[in-house]
Amino acid sequence: MNIPSDLMIEQLEMAKMTLPKGIRNDVKELTYCTLTEVTIEDQDGAAALGREIGQYITLETEKTYEIGEPAFEEIADILAKRLRTMLGDKRRILVLGIGNPNITPDSLGAKAVERLMVTRPLSPLPEHYASVSAAAAPVYGISGIESAEMAQGLTKVLQPEAVILIDAMATGTLERLCKTIQLADSGLTPGGGVDNARKEISAATLGVPVLSIGMPTVVDCRVLLRHVLADEWEQYGVKLHPYEESLIATPRQMEAATDMGAKIIAFALNKALHGDLSTEEILKYLY
Fold this sequence. Notes:
- By secondary structure, the chain is α/β, with parallel strands linked by helices.
- The chain has one domain: Rossmann fold, CATH 3.40.50.1450.
- It has helices spanning about 10-15, 45-50, 70-85, 110-115, 140-145, 145-160, 205, 220-230, 235, 255-275, 280-285, and strands spanning about 25-30, 35-40, 55-60, 90-100, 130-135, 160-170, 180-185, 210-220, 250.
- It is globular, with a radius of gyration of 19 Å.
């Protein structure tokens, strides 16, 4: 069974192999989350996993809609530190929220953009602040514009030094649904996790570094069957025909999950891009 997943750690698990040369996997247990850093260093590692060369950072925690203040602060701070490392000295940043804001599981990107400190209009720009532009990039079926086309157009006009993409993801396990945030520096193919892949958005297509960050909000229904029925799932799975490869599930608490996931991602970006502001300082700026 080929279960779609956007998460690198699940790619490793599904491969069921000893790490080949060219791939590093470091795991740290922290107070409120588990931090996994997978690095694909060369083409051999990329070919082994079917992913691009790059760094993939994953944070696994409690259900996002149950996260309290201490966990929120730890996760946002860790993401902010990794973002700063990946961005280096780049100070002109374009952030795009990918997805359909009218469908709750796909609204993560749009919700995160609403919580960003957009600073490009400020003059003079406060010390230690990056110049940040942000936009929601609705799906092709709504706007008639591919997310990749919007990214290319805005990159050409604004000339950012880096582009950050925020998008909902798919997971291949119930254990990581709405409990995981992944940050990567290898770009993004919108819709890839739900068998609706659109045009790639990456450094190769935009000409500048591209980071992607997201949370899995959907899971393939076959995963539910396998989780509940174990070895007997296949005989029941055939009854889903002709939809067995296109049905996805999402938690009932998805509105709260995407709200909190978007807040964590946005506040991590705000901290990373604007001199490590406190949560209180970010709230004062936004509200």
